[in-house]
Amino acid sequence: MPNPINIGISACLVGQPVRYDASAKTSAFCVNELGKHVQYRAFCPEVAIGLPVPRSTIRQINTNDVISVSRPDGSNNVTEALAEYGKRVAKLAEKFSGYIFCAKSPSCGMERVKVYSADGKSAKSDGVGIFAAEIMKANPLLPCEENGRLNDPIIRENFVARVFAYKAWKDLLKSGLTKHKLIQFHSCYKYTVMAHDLIAYKALGQLLARADIAVEEMAELYIAGLMTALKIKATRKKHANTLQHLQGYFSKKLSPLERQELAQQIDDYRQGLVPLVVPLTLIKHYLLIHPLSYIAQQTYLNPYPEQLKLRYGY
Predict the structure, then answer these.
(1) Single pTM value for the model
(2) How many angstroms separate the Cα of 239 from the Cα of each of 4, 149, 215, 306?
């Protein structure tokens, strides 16, 4: 990969036998599908801080509202070690375009980690892995997900789309930021944003129209707004609205029968009768027949490699 998309990942998810029982938790999607298009940087914080394989289990324990990570009996407290290692990897993660954590892990869990009472008699699933928390705190715009949540087709598609968008942004910054390049970038992502958050769609356009702030500040506000918008799940209703906007560009180029066919496919998608790929395929077909450069550049049509087939399932 000459310009790889680097993604951090829990080592057990790519098949490394680093779990407490010397097993792995290999993610078929991460290894066999997404792995063909990205380059992983694998980390196991528990092994990195010196815990052996195999090893005794560790858990998060709440003692007087202070969360610690140790063995169930409270021995071998590794809280600080995990946090310090997290801070070191967080600096590396500044160059990443995403991170995939192992769910429910006291070190790597992104959310819903079990936090036990000091006596071990009760637990609440409201914790965040100590290592994962440092990664996310230091890189608030970094697309992050857990392996379990990636089994949901909508969450999976949303995460991958954010990864590729964040990589495109990093490439833009490397090329040298200018106001013109920023506007061009937004021109390509307009309909992607529309499909996620119409309010952000309008706000980002207004931001780029401002003349009272420097381009560097504008860029910081823009990427924060973009990544926040893309994190909102795109619904069928919002996708259908976006598709209708794209349809409008072809209104004078299509025959009445072609317009009717496209409108019907968009409505079928809205009603859940066909997946998103169906109306998109027809739009791409018409785009080949009636080239429109502005529409052809829209990342909404091709946000990531088509081989991933992420728009086939919803």
Answers:
(1) 0.96
(2) 29, 22, 31, 18
